[in-house]
Amino acid sequence: MTSKLVPFDPAKVMVIRDVVPKTITTFSMPFARFGKFKVGGRGTIVRLQSGALAVFSPTALTDEVKQKVAEMGQVKYIAALDIEHHIYLGPWSAAYPTAQVIGPEGLPEKRAAQKNEDVPFAHVFTKANPLTAIDPEFDSEFSYEYVYAHKNKEIVFLHRPTKTVIQADLIFNYPATEQYSKTGISATSGILTKIFGALTNTTGNGQRRAIWYGISSGDRTGFSNAVKNIYKWDFDRIIGCHGDVIETNGKGIFKHVMEWHLAEQSNAS
């Protein structure tokens, strides 16, 4: 499965960047959905004040990545941000076996059905039993919201000290310029990429419509309630898996994309 979705030699095209020196590092690489849409892929590592590392949507565990991890600290948490971003969960869990693995409901079963590596999940987010604590060390710096109404079962994290939201598929920020910067290929080339880009940039109304009429249509109220909880957070930066990092004004961009959900009246009692 992996060979069909990611570059043959990820070390040659991966961009390792310190977004916040000594605290947040991203690992960006090309990724084309269905081999057609250039959306890019990204993993993120946050170094807690204790020195522990939290890894979100891990990417290929190359020698360069291992070296960077060793320089940063000890991996104690590995999070799959939804049921789609788990390709490298097995290698990371095997390399750092004491790390607590975090993921959404349905992912353990999906991995078992696909005969992926056996990964011991320490924390699973579910709609029926909302997860309110990981452990004191992690919770001292992170807030989180489980967007169960998203078709991919999104878990969204806020690193409070840096005002950074870390997420997978809740918001895209096309084009994937950084993620394709070492490939020699334009991140915007191809008619399908251009069409997809119109639905995943953060400046127009395309993404807002796609989320409203598509992604959230199965449970719009549940989706809207989660979006409203996220909007209450104090954040400026948004690191997503697809497209470029939103370095600043993240809350304003979030409001623009999610405007209809933020305005929706809740049907909850």
From TrEMBL:
Biological source species: Melanomma pulvis-pyrius CBS 109.77
Protein name per UniProt: DUF4336 domain-containing protein
Pfam families referenced in this protein's UniProt entry, alphabetically: DUF4336 (PF14234)
SUPFAM superfamilies hit by this protein: Metallo-hydrolase/oxidoreductase (SSF56281)
Matching InterPro entries: DUF4336, RibonucZ/Hydroxyglut_hydro
